[in-house]
Amino acid sequence: MVREIAYFEVQEGQGEGFIEAYNGVANVLNEASGSHGATLHRGIENPNSFTLIVEWDSVDAHTALTREPGFEDFGDAIGPYLAGRPEVRHVEAVG
After folding, report:
1. 48 near 11, Cβ under 8 Å?
2. Rounded Cα distance, 81 and 12, in Å
3. Backbone φ and ψ of 13, nearest 5°
4. Of 57, 66, 59, whose CA–CA distance to 89 is shortest?
5. Please, what's the b/e burial string for 12-25 (b: 16 or more CB within 10 A of its CB; e: otherwise)?
6. How far is it, in rounded angstroms, from Cα 83 to Cα 25?
7. Is 50 within 8 Å of 12 (Cβ atoms)?
8. Which pLDDT belongs to residue 53?
9. Which segments of 1-95 are extended strands (E)?
C-alpha cells in the first residue's frame, strides 16, 4: 500500500469554497481503480492549508488516474481556489 500525500495552500478566505469543490469531485479519487479512499484534512494553525491523503495499491495506480479524463475535472474544480501548485509525495510504511 502506498499513500499519496498532497499539500495544498488555498487563497485567503477560499477554504470553504475549496472544501465544497473537493467534495463535489472526491469521487474521482475514491472510485479510481487501485484507490482505497481519500481524506482531506484542514490545517489547525493555518486554515488555508490542506493535506489530502489517498491510499493506493501502487504509485502506478495513482499515475494511471492522472491520465484519465475525470482527473482533469478534479483539477478544474479545485484549481481556482489554489494559491500555488500542490506538493505531492508518495510514502509507504516501513515500521
Report:
1. yes
2. 9
3. 80, 5
4. 59
5. eeebeebbebbeeb
6. 19
7. no
8. 98
9. 2-9, 35-42, 49-56, 87-91
